[in-house]
Design a protein that fits this description.
single chain; two-stranded antiparallel sheet; 2 strands; disordered N terminus; disordered C terminus; membrane
Length: 743
């Protein structure tokens, strides 16, 4: 084998191309980009119509009227995630109702009518913040409603209208909302469903290329680089993002989308496992390379023309697999090479079934088999979190959303006190910052504070530079302000730091255009944002703190118990079997909370790097799904008693490894089964010459290989879930450590 070539230095791509690639991965199909364009178009229309309305009716609100109309467009589009037109319309109605309710209250108060009215409005922000954060008990929809309420309340605080002006602002909001709805709900919008299909086709093409490269490496006796699967891993994130958009656009078709995603997920896993079946340092006394490469080339061709049926190509593939099967049982090959080729046989079989769709179960939600009615069952909508929940000690405690609501009320009270006691000129910025950065846990608040503070500093610096360079060019600055808001819409989901910088830029430029905000006010924007962020972080850490990792560790252990129960129910255990299909969805829902969980270790409170723990759990369930598939195939094959004994040894070791992670067995218990498994592998190779067993041996080889691979994620989880202080090095070392032989 030739040595690996040294890594080549990759030239840095131009900025525009990097942005294009980022958008392709994080916004497949341009769903959020289209929302940003709709926001920009709405801004242009509402500013023009709002100014014309103020001038035409002589309202004397040439800046504040279009400002509130623009606020309506911002609320209707920015806080309304991409979905179907009907779903977005319903969300717009909710946003409109909450915002109008506050504007009616603002009209009744009339803060511009006197000092007492102004005081009432400022104090009103405290209960409003509690209500806005308590809405999070209903999930993300409630969180968006709360943020919309705070944005409208903050704009009202900035304007401080009289009662008559507040009534006009209500009309301005209605005007802006109608324009935004007309622009956003127009039929000219990209299809998230088509974008999802396109991303799966990209994955299909990448898998075909991967197989071509693997085939060339095997045929020419070149090393296959371990980083060759980076493209597949990279595309995995794009498929996930596209899947979320497609489900939002057509929730009723979620089972179909899941089936399609799973089909390509199985393809990716299968080809990566195939790369691990290439024998290493094997003498070429037996020609195994040619049939191996020919079979890989055939699968690649089928992926490149999946809708074309070529009978002759199928015959050549079957001949290549038959020749590879013959070679795999050759006594001239070392035992390790024969074992690898036995696994390759089942890998090619699995690839062929996924690509051609011979078995309907292979197209169903991963992993098959599963009950037929399970694939059509949509998960029930999440219930609103109650006021009190049961704590770890069994007592009733205040639920997390209401604890966060109390934190928000406390933080808003502090920033309002700054306004009343030390006369902070722009205290509403600190209050709005509190509402935007305070998260659903201490970890999320920390992450948001960090990004919001740094992003605002960068955004204000850019705004100050544009203010000096474009002094007097109002419309040019308005264009930059609109562009910044559009960038915020596209990046707010995955790059909160960039979104914060864009918002900071748009705020300082917008306030300069509307109220003549100068350099002093721009500097105030920075330090008052920092004040609000510091208050939010301190309150989140001190007042009724919420640490989601306290909830995650028992959740992970509960999932592991379900994994063990499902594994224990499979063949050769008699009785009713349990699929791990439902566990895939549960792990995904747990993974959605990752950005908040990993941050909590900054405060020394985390049970470990939860991102790594959940990712490892996902790997574990993937291996279990493959073992479930093999177990069902072995049960259908009705293997001999010798092979059942072999499988039992591996099964016993796996169950013991689960017991170690769950704290029900000693750390070395799983290693005690290694001699029995090693003897089982020798038994498998010794039976290779028995013609009656040749059809079943590849499946047994698969089962033993997956049984070995399953130990690594279990060892990592055992290290990550310990009560002692967590260290990433310990978790990695635990997974990579070889199994120790029993004494």
């Amino acid at each position: 084998m030739e040595p690996l070539a040294p890594p080549r230095h990759r030239p840095r791509e131009p900025f525009a191309r990097r942005v294009k690639h980022w958008l392709a991965d994080h916004d497949p199909g341009g769903i959020d980009t289209t929302r940003a364009l709709a926001l920009g178009i709405s801004f242009v229309i509402v500013i023009a119509t709002g100014y014309a309305t103020s001038v035409g009716f002589r309202l004397g609100m040439d800046t504040t009227f279009p400002m509130m109309a623009g606020c309506a467009a911002l609320v209707m589009i920015s806080f309304n995630p991409g979905a179907s037109a009907a779903a977005e319309g319903r969300t717009m109605l909710r946003l409109f109702g909450v915002s109008v309710a506050f504007l009616v209250l603002l009209t009744a108060i009339g803060p511009g009518n006197g000092t007492a009215n102004d005081m009432v409005q400022k104090l009103l922000l405290i209960p409003l913040s509690f209500i806005a954060l308590a809405l999070r008990r209903s999930g993300m929809d409630g969180q968006r409603l709360g943020l919309a309420l705070i944005v409208v309340a903050t704009v009202g605080t900035i304007i401080r209208p009289t009662r008559m002006e507040a009534a006009m602002l209500l009309l301005a909001f209605c005007q802006g909302a109608l324009v935004a709805a007309a622009v956003r709900l127009s039929p000219w919008r990209p299809s998230a469903v088509n974008a999802f299909v396109d991303t799966t086709l990209d994955m299909q093409s990448a898998v075909a290329t991967y197989l071509r490269e693997l085939s060339a490496a095997v045929r020419d006796n070149h090393p296959f680089p371990p980083d060759a699967s980076e493209v597949l891993e990279h595309l995995r994130g794009r498929v996930w993002n596209a899947l979320a958009n497609a489900i939002a656009e057509d929730p009723a078709a979620q089972p179909d989308f899941e089936q399609l995603r799973v089909r390509f997920y199985r393809l990716r896993v299968a080809v990566q496992l195939l790369a691990g079946c290439v024998p290493q340092k094997t003498p070429d006394t037996v020609d195994w390379r040619q049939p191996f490469a020919a079979a890989a080339d055939h699968i690649a061709r089928r992926l490149e023309a999946v809708d074309v049926s070529d009978v002759h190509a199928e015959e050549r593939f079957e001949r290549a697999v038959a020749q590879l099967r013959l070679v795999a049982f050759s006594p001239d090959l070392p035992g390790e090479a024969r074992f690898a080729l036995l696994r390759a046989l089942t890998a090619f079989d699995r690839l062929s079934m996924v690509v051609t769709g011979i078995a309907a179960a292979e197209m169903a939600p991963f992993p098959p088999p599963h009950p037929d009615d399970e694939q059509d069952a949509l998960p029930p909508p999440p219930r609103a979190i109650p006021l009190f929940v049961k704590g770890p000690d069994g007592r009733q405690i205040l639920s997390a959303p209401y604890r966060v609501a109390c934190q928000g009320a406390m933080a808003t009270a502090i920033t309002t006190a700054f306004d009343l006691l030390v006369h902070l000129d722009h205290a509403y910025w600190a209050t709005m910052t509190v509402m935007f950065v305070i998260g659903n846990s201490v970890g999320e608040t920390y992450m948001r504070v960090r990004y919001r503070t740094v992003g605002t500093l960068i955004g204000v610096a850019l705004g100050f530079g544009l203010f000096l360079a474009l002094e007097g060019q109002i419309w040019v600055m308005a264009g930059f302000c609109m562009l910044a808001q559009m960038i915020a819409v596209v990046t707010q989901k995955d790059r909160y730091d960039i979104a914060s910088a864009a918002v900071g830029l748009s705020v300082v430029l917008g306030l300069h255009i509307i109220s003549g905000l100068g350099p002093e006010g721009m500097v105030a924007r920075v330090y008052e944002t920092a004040i609000g962020a510091a208050v939010a972080l301190a309150v989140s850490f001190i007042v009724l703190p919420v640490y989601l990792t306290d909830q995650v560790r028992p959740e992970v252990r509960a999932l592991l118990r379900r994994c063990r129960a499902a594994f224990a129910s499979w063949w050769p255990h008699p009785g009713e079997t349990t699929s791990v299909a439902a566990l895939v969805r549960d792990v995904r829902s747990l993974g959605l909370r990752l950005p908040n969980l990993g941050a909590e270790q900054v405060f020394g409170h985390s049970a470990g790097d939860v991102a790594n723990i959940v990712s490892t759990l996902d790997v574990l369930i993937t291996y279990l799904a493959l073992m479930e598939d093999v177990a069902h195939r072995l049960a259908a094959a009705n293997p001999s008693e010798q092979l059942v004994t072999v499988v039992e040894a591996a099964r016993s070791r796996t169950l013991t490894a689960f017991e170690v992670v769950l704290g029900e067995a000693g750390a070395g218990s799983a290693d005690a089964a290694n001699p029995a498994v090693a003897a089982a592998v020798s038994t498998v190779l010794g039976l290779a010459d028995d013609a009656k067993l040749r059809e079943t041996l590849p499946l047994v080889a698969d089962y033993l290989a997956y049984s070995e691979a399953l130990l690594r994620p279990l060892r990592e989880l055992n290290a990550g879930l310990r009560d002692k202080p967590w260290r990433k090095e310990d978790m990695i070392a635990a997974g990579a450590a070889p199994a120790t032989p029993a004494p």
